[in-house]
From TrEMBL:
<dbReference type="InterPro" id="IPR032342">
    <property type="entry name" value="DUF4861"/>
</dbReference>
<protein>
    <submittedName>
        <fullName>DUF4861 domain-containing protein</fullName>
    </submittedName>
</protein>
<dbReference type="InterPro" id="IPR008928">
    <property type="entry name" value="6-hairpin_glycosidase_sf"/>
</dbReference>
<dbReference type="InterPro" id="IPR012341">
    <property type="entry name" value="6hp_glycosidase-like_sf"/>
</dbReference>
<dbReference type="InterPro" id="IPR010905">
    <property type="entry name" value="Glyco_hydro_88"/>
</dbReference>
<feature type="signal peptide">
    <location>
        <begin position="1"/>
        <end position="25"/>
    </location>
</feature>
<dbReference type="InterPro" id="IPR052043">
    <property type="entry name" value="PolySaccharide_Degr_Enz"/>
</dbReference>
<dbReference type="Pfam" id="PF07470">
    <property type="entry name" value="Glyco_hydro_88"/>
</dbReference>
<dbReference type="Pfam" id="PF16153">
    <property type="entry name" value="DUF4861"/>
</dbReference>
<keyword id="KW-0732">Signal</keyword>
<keyword id="KW-0378">Hydrolase</keyword>
């Protein structure tokens, strides 16, 4: 279940994307709007992009919602969503995905029906909702299992089961690259690369540095005797090159080959830009096709601006071309936001009406705008560059990187250097944290900029939250977008119905990526699942999932409920708080107290705890981090003998509620594992006054993340391994 606010936004977006009559009646007097500005500054560029997108959403295309035409539009809407201060654009894309049930187009092998997956994947990288990519992954897996190897000859039946026309290089490969980036499945990357070069070897003219549309055009000639190279067709290739290079790692052995083709084509296309800043429908015969053309020109502006921003293209040569192209494209936008001069669908260049528009033209325009916007932002600021490297052999997805903010950067924001997207971030003291997704061994760059150099900052998704809950007997509750917990405060000790003395950790399971804690407390009932999750854990006086005890003389010595609390950071990406526990007898009359600092990150099922004990007497304390054992056939495993200090427990099913997994990690390793009083303990040694660090967390069989005990075991084990190989962050 979504929040009321998000649900209203999504429903409104669905209405905008569906085949409905515009909300404003045609016979109502229109307000005369000023023409959009062609100025290249962040505010003007963003304003024009939003005007064009708003017109498109209010005047939806009648193509199938999973059609390639629509999907190019989605590419542009996503690029806008990543820089706009309004959430309506991403809401529209989520609504579209829900409408499509996250399915690809109906033609299984056809590249045109893969492109919608690009938007699904980009949404997944922001929300990490498994349903967004599940159908695409199943479809691509089937393609790999039944791979086609037929001819690319366009007159032969079945040729379009492969990428036999140049447009396909925009439609399909970027979807395969994005799915690889999410999953780390090398097969997706290898397929995209190998099939690209099969198509290139067949259709790319190495002398002209341009692509034939398909094999039908090898021997055709224009009226002036030149070869037929379609403007938008080569625009698809240039856009495809950009969208592949955005996700192809810097150290991949095939990257130089892609960069070389990109530069070759860019150099040729630079010579073909017309004096008005646009390109013509036929690249080598502009006189026969003199009409202004927005869609192909937008794709070239996108590719050129991206290359300048990446330092791949010489700014002195290409920046003026981008500026001319953007000015000309904006001139094709009417005052109400309608983009005109878009060549209709077809296999080849042709004459068309100047007033025509199409959703794919809007997509190209918005993509171009996103890179022109970045160019304008970087014109007046020198960003801090942060490089984040994954030192491991697996994907590091939905993990936070942390960097020290450079001097002089006030109200910093983070931009993905590969895509121009503004990434959610959070400032904590002198540090900034932001989410990353890195393939094995990959390094990605991010730019830290002052917020006041942007026209807007996209609203952040709140993924973590922590708060004191006095209205529920002094609970303290916290959550990420994956899990939720609570512990008990002082009021419940004296409550006549409860009289509960416990410092154990309770678990609330959730199946949504949105916050639930405040909603559930406000509702006052959270023991039944109404579509978001529930509380069925029953911690009682046990250690629950991650509560601690002091072991002495073979007995457990538990603290009472926390006495005081302090919130140090409350999201959107990391929540940090402290709980203080008063003196208790930890055995043999030795009095102990502690202050625990908890932190939980977006994307994580694990909470980090750094606790400091005060104790009478000298010597270390044996600390046990507990997981209560349930009656029935549960599954327990630990890292004994591996010095990794982790343990995982998968509870037996709780009726229709499913199973909860609990995990514990001691980064420095465990001194032992014991089962005491039906509780499984991971043991470590703490020195009074020194930090003792451990992690605990929970997962659920109905969350969509953990199908069974093996999946939960793997998560806890891999989490322990990642702690020993943290992301490598460098700044300049």
């Amino acid at each position: 279940m979504t929040s009321p606010h998000l649900r209203i936004a999504v429903l409104a977006a669905v209405a905008a994307m569906c085949y409905t009559v515009p909300a404003i009646a045609a016979d109502m007097p229109a307000v005369q709007a000023a023409a959009p500005s062609a100025a290249i500054n962040p505010k003007a560029v963003l304003s024009t992009m939003e005007r064009v997108a708003d017109w498109q959403l209010a005047n939806p295309s009648k193509h199938r919602p999973d059609d390639w035409t629509q999907a190019v539009g989605y590419n542009g809407i996503m690029a806008l969503a990543n820089i706009s201060g309004s959430s309506k654009y991403r809401d529209a894309m989520i609504a579209m995905g829900e409408k499509n049930n996250w399915n690809l187009g109906p033609n299984h092998y056809h590249a045109d029906d893969h492109i919608v997956g690009q938007t699904y994947a980009e949404l997944y990288l922001q929300t990490h909702d498994p349903k967004m990519i599940a159908p695409m992954r199943a479809s691509f897996d089937d393609i790999l299992a039944n791979r086609r190897s037929g001819t690319l000859e366009f007159t032969v039946k079945g040729n379009q089961d492969r990428w036999s026309w140049c447009d396909a290089l925009y439609m399909a490969p970027p979807a395969w690259l994005r799915l690889w980036a999410i999953t780390g499945d090398q097969r997706y990357l290898d397929f995209a690369i190998s099939e690209w070069w099969v198509t290139s070897d067949y259709l790319y003219d190495k002398e002209e540095h341009l692509y034939f549309r398909d094999s039908n055009y090898f021997d055709k000639r224009e009226a002036n005797g030149k070869k037929v190279y379609w403007g938008r067709g080569n625009g698809w290739v240039m856009g495809g090159l950009v969208r592949v290079l955005q996700y192809l790692p810097e150290n991949h052995p095939e990257r130089p080959r892609f960069v070389q083709q990109y530069k070759e084509m860019a150099a040729k296309l630079l010579t073909l830009q017309q004096p008005d800043g646009l390109w013509r429908a036929s690249l080598l015969d502009p006189a026969t096709y003199p009409m202004k053309e927005s869609s192909g020109s937008a794709l070239y502006a996108y590719a050129f601006a991206w290359g300048v921003n990446q330092g791949l293209l010489d700014a002195k040569a290409y920046k003026p071309a981008v500026q001319k192209a953007w000015t000309a494209l904006v001139a094709n936008v009417q005052a109400d936001g309608k983009l005109t001069h878009v060549q209709p669908i077809g296999l080849a260049p042709k004459v068309f009406d100047d007033n025509l528009t199409e959703v794919y033209g809007v997509g190209g325009f918005l993509l171009a705008g996103s890179e022109v916007y970045r160019m304008a932002v970087l014109e007046h600021t020198k960003p801090q560059t942060v490089s984040v490297a994954n030192p491991t052999s697996g994907v590091r997805g939905d993990e936070l990187a942390e960097a020290t903010i450079g001097k002089g950067i006030s109200k910093p924001v983070v931009m993905d250097a590969a895509t121009s997207a503004i990434v959610s971030s959070q400032v904590i003291g002198k540090q900034i944290v932001f989410p990353v997704n890195l393939a094995a061994g990959e390094t990605r760059r991010y730019l830290v900029l002052p917020a006041d150099h942007l026209a807007a900052v996209p609203p952040a998704d709140v993924k973590t939250h922590a708060r004191f809950v006095p209205e529920r007997l002094d609970d303290f509750a916290w959550e990420s977008d994956r899990t939720a917990h609570r512990v008990y405060g002082p009021a419940i000790v004296n409550d006549p119905k409860e009289h509960l003395i416990s410092s154990g950790v309770d678990v609330w399971v959730k199946k949504v990526r949105t916050p639930v804690v405040d909603k559930w407390y406000k509702r006052g009932e959270y023991h039944h699942d109404v579509g978001e999750g529930l509380d069925f854990y029953d911690v009682g006086q046990s250690r629950g999932c991650g509560g601690t005890t002091i072991l002495a003389n073979g007995k457990l010595h538990n603290s009472s409920n926390f006495k005081t609390w302090k919130v140090l950071a409350d999201g959107p990406l990391r929540a940090i708080f402290e709980l203080a526990y008063g003196d208790w007898d930890a055995g043999n009359g030795r009095m102990v107290s502690e202050v625990k600092r908890y932190s939980i990150d977006a994307g994580s099922n694990m909470t980090r705890v750094e606790t400091r004990f005060k104790a009478s007497g000298k010597g270390p304390l044996t600390v046990g981090v507990g997981m209560v054992q349930r009656d029935g056939d549960g599954h327990y495993v630990n890292g004994a003998g591996s010095a990794e200090g982790w343990a995982a427990y998968w509870q037996p099913p709780h009726g229709d509620d499913g199973s909860i997994g609990c995990g514990v990690v001691l980064p420095v390793g465990a001194s032992g594992y014991e089962l005491i009083d039906k509780q499984q303990f991971t043991l470590g040694t703490a020195q009074p006054g020194q930090p003792f660090v451990y992690y605990f967390g929970a997962g659920w069989s109905k969350s969509g993340d953990f199908a069974d005990a093996a999946a939960w075991d793997a998560y806890v084990r891999n989490y322990a391994q990642k702690l020993k190989a943290p992301l490598k962050v460098s700044t300049q």
